[in-house]
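General statements about sequence and structure are easier to judge against a single worked case. No coordinates are needed to read the tokens, only the vocabulary itself. The sequence in question and its structure tokens are set out directly beneath this paragraph.
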Amino acid sequence: MNPSGTVPTDLLANYDPGGFFDELFGGPGSPAEHTSAIRGRLSSFDFADLQRRAKDAERELYNLGITFLVYSDQDAVDRILPFDVIPRVISAREWGAVEAGVVQRVTALNLFLHDIYHDQKILKDGIIPADLVTGNQNFRPQMIGLDVPFDTYVHIMGVDLVRDGQGIFRVLEDNARVPSGVSYVVENRHMMMRAFPDLVSDIGIRPVDNYGVKLLEAMSEVAPADIQDPQVVLLSPGSYNSAYFEHIFLAREMGVPLVEGRDLVVRDDRVYMKTTNGLARVDTIYRRVDDAFLDPLAFRPDSHLGVPGIMEAYRKGNVTLANAIGTGVADDKAVYCYVPRMIKYYLDQDAIIPNVETNICREPEGLALTLDRLSELVVKPVGEAGGYGITIGPRATKAELEDCRAKLLADPANYISQPMIPLSVCPTLVEEGIEPRHVDLRPFAITGRSTWVLPGGLSRVALRKGTLIVNSSQGGGSKDTWVLE
């Protein structure tokens, strides 16, 4: 805002990225020329009109049921993912590098998973500590020696990327089990096209609405080889799951049944779906149920979410599960540190998208460095998700740092540490005007016989001023991500 307390006519006139790399303006010495037309259109918007349209968009998202559940909040069970109307824009050249890097990473992780459940060469060659893999809580001995179609274990992958102060994309973490958020990518685009046709038109943005078609193609490709017209279903834990809206959305986009464990049954090591016309065979299951709850006969006997006997049907090749059982090893935060070495080992290539520099606290030198620089580093538990359990050293109190130190000393193998990355920012609509807020990016890759990457991905935005936590469960929102043609 300007000193008179009114928003200037040029919406972006007083915008200041605060020294961070900016997704719309670029960085020092590297202006974002590809966004000039979009900046010009945004500058001409009336602030009150922008606010009104933004409120209309959020109301429509809620009315459409585009929500997620928050378990820890007693007051509000259903929430919309707050949606910011100022898009994040990526040039065709930038996207080419991101896409190539994601494909490379997915390829290496699939080779790694095939290896650890077969010959374990990478462990024997000492590239990754064997106990980090075979002692991992997500390693499934039941998968040893089991072959999967095209050696694809991670069919749906979300790679969390951040951009540093120089504008370099870096991998923050991998999501190889049940990555969520793609429904918001597609719905955000639909919302922008409805609410801001004057901003979207004639820009040349790559579409995202073919995700369901691509997902169904891959799910059909990986079905058991003898099936001509495979039956695909989406297996959900049910309506109390935080991502249940997404399960409904994806089943609808693919045009396949949405089922729960009680809707499926195993007969003679084959999986069937209960229908009004009797049992119908199921060939591929896109599962949004974790390993542990998938089969009470093979994993947790107290699970009511899964299907008794499904592991044996899977082991005999009579059904395909996506993602494969045991993929959790590939998105463990400690294993993440070794992915650049995996890429070199399996592909003889350097990582196209580098990792964030990471200290592994299970290794003595990593622990020592972390303890020595605790007030400068971000410390993360390897098994947590959603931004929980993280200690951000430069912003932590003395008591929080001492608590973190005690936890590190008690269980060093449970932690990694990373430098605090000055995450890139993007202009964001707030009550006072347009201000910078930190963003990350989760591109989604689908792999059947080969890998396809959705152009763009989920741009999450830390709506609270100054915070780096973008997770929806902790107050983050999302933006539409435009990849330019």
Notes: The mean pLDDT is 91. The first strand starts at residue 26 and ends at 27. The chain has 14 helices and 24 strands. The radius of gyration is 23 Å.
